[in-house]
Amino acid sequence: MNSLRERAFLNRLDELRGTMPARPHDARAIAALAANPGCARRAVMDAAGVDKDRAARHVGFPAPFGQSQFAITRGNVFESLVKENGCAELLRLLRELLGLSVAQVGYRDVESVGSHLRHSHTRALIDRAAREDDGTAVFYDHPLFSLEIAGHTSYLEPDVVAFQIGGRFHIVEIKSFGMIDGQAEPDKVAAAARQAAVYVLALRTLMADLGHDPERVSHDVVLVCPENFANRPTAALVDVRKQLSVLGRQLTRMTRVEYLLEGLPDDLTFDLAPGEDGVPTRSADELTQALLQVPARYAPDCLSTCDMCMFCRHEARACGSTDLLGRQIRDQLGGVSGMHEALGLAEGTREAVEGQEEIARLLRLADRLREESLR
Amino acid sequence: MSALTALARLRAVRDGVAQRITTVRHCHISDQPLVLIPLKLAGEAAAPLAAMVGTDPGHPRLLVVPQPRNRDLRFAFAAGLAEVLLPYIEGFEKSTETVERRGGEPYERCLDAPQILVPNRSAASFTGLLGRSTRFRRAEGPYPVHPSVPLLGRWLTYFADRSQQPGSSVLLAATEALSLHWATGQSGLEDANLAALLGWIDPPPGMSGHRAAEEAEDPLLWPPAGPTTDPGFDNEVLAPAIRAYEEAPTDRAVDRVSQALRTQLDPTWRLMWRAVDLLRSLPEGSRVKDRWEIDRGSFTRFVERIAEGSPPQARRDGAVGAAARLAGLERARASYDVQRAHDDPLLMAEYRLTGEAFAGTVIAADPEHSEGEGRSRKLRPLITVRTGDPVRLTPGTVVGSPDRRGHAAEIVEAVDGEITLKITKGMGRGRTPAPGSVPEPGERVSYTSLIDDFQSSAALPGPEQTPWTHGGPPEEYEPGDDDAQEEWL
Amino acid sequence: MTPQQEAAAVVDAVLADLPRHRGVVVDSPPGAGKSTLVVKAAGHIAETGEPLMIVAQTNEQVDDLVERLAAEHPDLGVGRLSASGYITPGRILALPNVSVAGKLPDLGDPAVVIATADKWAWIGDRTWPWAIVDEAYQMRSDKLLRIASLFERSLFVGDPGQLDPFSIVDGDRWAGLSWDPVQSAVSVLLRHNPDLPVHRLPVSWRLPASAAPVVSEAFYPFTGFRAGTGPADRSLEFTVNGMRTPFDLALEEAAGSGWALYELPSRHTVRTDAEAVLATASLATRLLQRSPVAHSERGSHPVTADRIAIGAAHRDQVAAIRAAGVPPEITVDTANRLQGREYDVTIVLHPLSGRRDATAFHLESGRLCVLASRHRHACVVVARAGIPELLDAHPSAEPVQLGVPVKFPDGWEANQAVLAHLSKHRVTPDD
């Protein structure tokens, strides 16, 4: 993109978002980009930094994502246990996992400086570490990384620790789900791996920016979890190379959101500017109409990943979309997108249009066999 | 999802009620099942919070852990669960039958076996985790527990492991058992919500399945079936109750936690028994009994294993154990799929749709047709079947028929909806076929290439002979204090 | 070094390693001379006078090896063990030094005994000093467990880029275990014996210069291989003129460049997309009508029906293509069953054609690798437009199991790489 076009594109995103500040992308949000990349609605809202959770609430379809305080407490307790005494437990784990012989490890808490300085402080510390290749080992707690996403700088405040030894870095991710007999829930590990990949990428970008070899940040991240049913931490290496390449693809895609914007009305906006009572001043109806301008690609998996899920499910239901029934069903129905259409073909009340002859034949046969078998 | 199931789902959406996708029931439902609804503390791998358990719909037993982070209270919970579960299991151990077998000693098999019903797959997995966290405990030495606790652990592990066996019914997840028989107007993912699923299958009078399912998603009306509780309930109700117990561990405080948890469990308890009734109302498939017999055999062997004093199940399978289990699972999967299709015309319809089966009318028969000469002369009756199904079976394919057990045939020719078959098995040994063994013109028949011809694999070496390619013989398991001391926080 | 020298050096190194290690692994990309190596190693071992057992995975593979052994080593006694349902094909019966039997004692005492892994598992009470395990990456480790005590040392040969072994049941329970029974025999072997030497055959003799770099980059990104022949060594010529129909254009593009993408308009279809199926079958029929002649380093020969294969992902597609009318001598089969086979020209129905959502099955890199690497001269791929968009919209959220090594290449990337190359050789029905 040339700079003029880029500016126009960024302006367009700003208009879509309206007067609210862009919602920063945390690692979780960035990792979630890969969940349903075919959805234009989500892509546009994410690129523009719209607060999807707030938008969904305002139109009357809040996402059913709550967090139990027991889970939050458990997470915090475990994290502080791992980080106690300058990450002493962590050092024990890394010694075993990476076969280190270091006796001593430095500990730098980046949070000790004011929040406005944390990013530059992180930069300075990483730069120094990358230069001093003297074999010392250091933990960096609460580093603040940044990543450029669709023209906006997003700051990432990892609940992670960066570990550096001899100028090489590992991202350490602390999670409180259990690792039982060497295995943890694969979906949770996958989510942790996707998030960790965001930090690996951010740290690699920073390294490159500082003129160091980005490959010095390992693609093996250290996942720290409670062992079995206890609080005692244990660790495993997770290779995030695949997650890194997926992430790379999604970030490139974000700038391609440009073509999704073509054909949208010029005055389209998802503005959520609040009135004095904190509630968005726009009517819910107006916002609903605006949202419907950008096509969604609803799939049932959205119910666990996207803030807009209930809204989109309602929409899919209202227009009788086969997407409601699952990701594979449209393939099963030979591309027929409407439930009424498919039923009409099956029951012979609807003529197949060009290209539907085969699926119509299949559905009619299925219908006959079903009737015959239920007799 | 097949086109047939897809169609059933579309109909469910239009008619506002779930549609049957089988004509018979394919799982065993015991006369006296035990329903178990476990709850766990959010954020923990296996910290039990409560369970509602029992065999009498009118009298569930509620077990709670007033402070789930307290180790002693957890073991008290486990002992409480054992108090319900172990007598239930033992009730099936006594009555046995003697089974004769060809070329072997006769053996004993329990006449019936226990059956545990849990709400969903997560509850089944959690049952396994509970088993894992209790089976290595010991009644003596450091951190002693009640002797029933490790026994409970071994049984829970048994049930959870066995529930992965295709066709087994000793531990069923209600959502899975229901989804096997009904298609709803929502996605499979949403079917994992028991209340929503039942909303579609059996909506309240005057309400559509869609509406009932929507209501079921409101955690205030229908608390989740567990094992994870509703975060709103955790934050607003449970947390204050637990805090009150911490401040003063009185009976009243315990009561408050119990009452809170009861509100979360009662609705699911009622749903579970509704699920049982719904499943019972379906006629049983003819091979369900055969599979239950295998379950009874498996149960009996585990009873014996415990009686012999063998050690608890290992944490993970060894090389030989894993291969043996895999072979058993594959064998069970293959015959389960075949048996269900042969038991159920609606499932067979799936194979007819893909051309692997067909049904039609016999239009010609040559029952005395034979092949070969003299001594090698063999009776090979021929029949020709006319069908409207899109058959994709090539000449030479071996087929069986759901209508005739022990019957086997081979496709000779398939052109333009007329299939000629050569019958190779099941017509007796005479020069002419046994009466009724060859279908007659005008008869309605069906054939399929889906037959139970699973080749069993050769024997495995003993674990002590594990070869070098697989790490060599494993160290023998010695139960030690380490296991018993494993933290459970 | 010439490709010949390079490949010979690897073979020498393999043979030299045999007596030094309990196991030697040889990775062989498509057409890199795996069977040649097996036959050569068999002769090498037989020279020592010690008995050898050979393990292959299917009856067809066993028969192929028996045939090659008999041809290369006519003095060697070969015993072929078979299971009860096996009918000995004529090509094996005709071989003088080959005995076939269901039981070991009935074979006599040949220097080499060969059977499928399943059959070997029933043989006990004897230990062979040497074994060769062929197609070891397609062998499930539980099969190796059943036969590993039969031999003292073994050569494992296979192609890591093809389809992984699979099970009809869920294997999650064993994830991360070093002896996971649903993993391949080689991965389990190497996890327990990380010090065993692993060699890699560096040259594909099958794939032409037009295909080796494409397949190598897409499916063997870290190891790589090259073609044994140069661009001038192979050519495909039609002795009957075409009529400039789109099918002709596609075939000519493939003859000229080694690849063609016959692209139908974008549409979501049922799996047995009639238009795509018909195009696939018609291309094969048209190909034969054009009487192609293949010229290669081995000389020239007419490309007859038995030198042509059609590949697809699903069995119902295979049946539909057959039903659409293909000369019976042309092989039509799924990727699974085309593994290890070689043809002059292949026509492939792309696994993602007409799909709206890709599944792990469709994206499995091994499936595409098999389909794209069976040919000596040319490969024509039939697909509907829109596959790049489908890949773009594919959610990437595979679960991650601890302790399971990440497998490369990623199906997504491999699919993109192949498509990017094919797009340069596109022909559409409107052309």
From TrEMBL, chain C:
<keyword id="KW-0378">Hydrolase</keyword>
<keyword id="KW-0347">Helicase</keyword>
<protein>
    <submittedName>
        <fullName>AAA family ATPase</fullName>
    </submittedName>
</protein>
<dbReference type="Pfam" id="PF13604">
    <property type="entry name" value="AAA_30"/>
</dbReference>
<dbReference type="InterPro" id="IPR050534">
    <property type="entry name" value="Coronavir_polyprotein_1ab"/>
</dbReference>
<dbReference type="InterPro" id="IPR027417">
    <property type="entry name" value="P-loop_NTPase"/>
</dbReference>
<keyword id="KW-0067">ATP-binding</keyword>
<keyword id="KW-0547">Nucleotide-binding</keyword>
